[in-house]
Amino acid sequence: MDKNTCRQYWLEKRKTFQPEKIQAFQEALIDFLSNLEAQTIFSYFSIKDELPTRQAIYANWQRHRILIPRTNPQDRSMETCPIRSKEDLVDGPFHLIEAKTPAYDGKIDLCLVPGLVFDRQGFRIGYGGGYYDRFLKDHPCYCIGLCLEEQIVPDLKPAPYDMPVQALFTEQGLRQI
């Protein structure tokens, strides 16, 4: 199955995920982040059918420096911006929620990476814009892909520019690659 077909399949499949598994994932993520020693965490701010990160962000933005992406559609890049409250959030391109705060260019301890599907080697298929692959290439840090157990497949046959994550976090907890 090529990437576009796989992407479409998982976009539809995501709509069928059991609410109990999504709730279990959200609770596990809140607990996981609450017990981390990491100071600076970069995470996507979930929208639509994405696995939820908002409650984990809200629960941890006083404990950790939380960064969310701000995208630049012209060059398909993103920068990291700190948020400390809901007042720091604005609507961005692609119906994303972004930060209105200045960009952060310091060290990132942990990056939480979205994906439609991941393989056992840490490669992923996302929405197809390449934003995270470009970002991770230029900003190496420890990366955890967020997914449900059912979103893990044996092999996605990555392209040379695809960047893997080092671990996966599911409703069952952390799984090192």
Strand adjacency order, main sheet: 3-2-1-6-9-11-12
Class of secondary structure makeup:
alpha/beta
CATH uppermost class: Alpha Beta
Number of domains: 1
N-to-C SSE string, H for helix and E for strand: HHEHEEEEEEEHEEEE
Which range best describes the helical content: under 10%, 10-25%, 25-40%, 40-55%, 55-70% or over 70%?
A: 10-25%
Write a brief structural summary.
The protein has helices at 3-14, 19-34, 54-60, 131-138; strands at residues 40-43, 65-72, 77-83, 89-91, 97-99, 110-113, 117-119, 124-125, 142-146, 152-153, 167-170, 173-176. It has 177 residues and is of the alpha/beta class.
What does this protein structure show overall?
This is 5-formyltetrahydrofolate cyclo-ligase. It comes from Urinicoccus massiliensis. GO terms for molecular function: 5-formyltetrahydrofolate cyclo-ligase activity; ATP binding; metal ion binding. One of its GO terms (biological process) is tetrahydrofolate interconversion. With 177 residues, this protein is of the alpha/beta class. The chain has one domain: NagB/RpiA/CoA transferase-like (Rossmann fold). It contains four helices and twelve strands, in the order ααβαβββββββαββββ. The longest helix is centred in the first third of the chain and has 16 residues. The radius of gyration is 15 Å and the shape is globular. 32% of the residues are buried.
Secondary structure layout plus pairing:
Blueprint: H1 3-14, H2 19-34, E1 40-43, H3 54-60, E2 65-72, E3 77-83, E4 89-91, E5 97-99, E6 110-113, E7 117-119, E8 124-125, H4 131-138, E9 142-146, E10 152-153, E11 167-170, E12 173-176
Parallel strand pairs: 1-2, 1-6, 6-9, 7-10, 9-11
Antiparallel strand pairs: 2-3, 4-5, 7-8, 11-12
Helix pairs in contact: 2-3
